[in-house]
Predict the 3D structure of the following.
Amino acid sequence: MLKDPSQKYRPFPPVNLPDRQWPGRVITAAPRWCSVDLRDGNQALAVPMNVGQKLELFNTLVKVGFKEIEVGFPSASNTEFTFNRRLIEEQRAPEDVWLQVLVQAREDLIERTVESLVGAKRVIIHLYNSTSPAQRRVVFGMSRPEIVRVAVRGAQLIKERLERLRGTEIMLQYSPESFSATEVEFARDISEAVMDVWQPTPQRKMILNLPDTVEVAMPNVYADQIEWICRHIKNRDSLIVSLHTHNDRGTGVAATELGLLAGAERVEGTLFGNGERTGNLDVVAVGLNLYMHGIDPQLDFSNLNAVRAVYERCTGMTVPPRQPYAGELVFTAFSGSHQDAIKKGLAEWEDKQIELQSSTSTGTAKSELQHWDVPYLTIDPRDIGREYREVIRVNSQSGKGGVAYLLESEYGIELPKDFQREFGPIANDEVDRLGREVSGAELKAMFWREYIERHAPWQLLGFETESRNGGVKCKARLRHHGQPVEFTGEGNGPLAALVNGFSRTCDLRFEITHYSEHALSAGETASAIAYIQIKQADGKTRWGAGVDTNIELASVHAVLSALNRS
């Protein structure tokens, strides 16, 4: 890298817009969406999709709710042309879906494009030509007036052929490609020249697409460009201003959101941002950003995993695990403090929903009970088809909250708070030794080894109780270091009698400071789990746990578990 990059690179000049309005605006509704997965997304693949793959992805886009889909560049190849014809001849596009096709301002390409559209119900013909200084100089060797003539000629060629598409509802779209690197005055002038040919009206608008073809500046500059055009172009009410951002600087989503604030009404992008170089706009991210602010995105991502599966199967691409909303790990916490906050937040949310249902049934005020506010989770994972068991996972960075959550959510093991504080570090040490993430099954196995399967030095052989004079008498048969031990004890309950027997016969003195239990499963073969904390004569405490189909025996096993761990 250069010591002084200014010798080779220069900042992009700002737009002169001192009274810009977009910073004070808010987005209140979803834009019109256009998927370009089948065109821009397909172009970016090392191995482009075949017709069958494009059909499967097209069907998924329709199911998600896209009403405008750029289906290809029909003049580019026979595959693209054939795909177009199959969509039309097999009537695969619903009546409310617009098929968008892309074409350069060249007569032979326009002719082939129009041919591909015969018989369609609704189409958007998307004309483009490059306008930036670098493109004018390097690629075309043309002046500004010459570049304008290219655009105007293309617009005229399309207009002359519209008669051949009788019975088809047509919308026209123009893109000054490389708009973001073009002087705003020239972008306006060339766009108005195309408008003069197509003559849009407020009743029959055209789409003016202003692409951030290459990100050359911060997203606020793109927003200034959009607002400048919206304020200075003629007949603004006859236009649908559209955005098409790329991600060269990693700010494609931000540029789109700021562009919407600046006055755009339409957005082009791909499902997960697949596109040339660093990618196109990630439509899922922008749509669910709207959703998390309470705005209906008009796209259905309620089964986002299924959408991702189709995308990955058809394109051969993979969604990174940390990609917003769609990645495998985005609703996952490994940090112990994060896990604890999520666990408590989810519990509060469930309690709020119960209270909300109660207030609704009694006619009392709802207040703010219905609004999501769970730490670290911007939306409820269930809204997009994810499960809470996916939220918290455990590795060496995790704490007791994550461990407890997995045991409870996957196996119904509801550890008391103090028990979590004891088992959490034990599990963490084992996970740290393994040096990887562990599953719920592995955590359960750790718990079982540490507590349930502790049969030495004390092992239960038999335990019987009988009621006597308002109390309980127990008879315990045990093995201690392999030797049989029997004793009786009395108390106000089975556990008190057991403690009494240990004290009288074995000179083992302790008290039970916590006891709780719950069912692990339902049905005739249901098991119960008991949690016991004992405090020994030296003041030290230990936890134990026991499992049995008999709750009394589960409690005795838990006492022995605690003693065996002392």
User: Anything to note?
Assistant: The mean pLDDT is 93. Residues 30-315 form a domain with the TIM Barrel fold (CATH 3.20.20.70).
